[in-house]
Amino acid sequence: MTTADFYIYKIKKDGQGNIAGVRIRRVDVDQDGKITVKGSRYAVKGLICDLLKTSKLKIQTAAYSKNQKLWTVLNDVSLVVEGDKEYLRIDGERTLKDDLGTLPEFL
């Protein structure tokens, strides 16, 4: 099983509804499928965009179920560039907005 380098699990939006930053975690999965969650960090959107531009890292979205104490991997995160604007997307659709699915927002 291949794993991402980072998982985005919460987002922070600016006044226009665009993503300003994200909460990311490093999640390791061993060969038996056991998941080990590493520490949480805040990252500004620009940093995530720069990491995706390198094409050397894999970033996905993930969700945590408190009841089951279980992380679920959701979607690959991609970078879409339109002129001088950069958008984080969970698919290859080229719309003029950020879209990381139904990830919860944090303050």
TrEMBL record:
<protein>
    <submittedName>
        <fullName>Uncharacterized protein</fullName>
    </submittedName>
</protein>
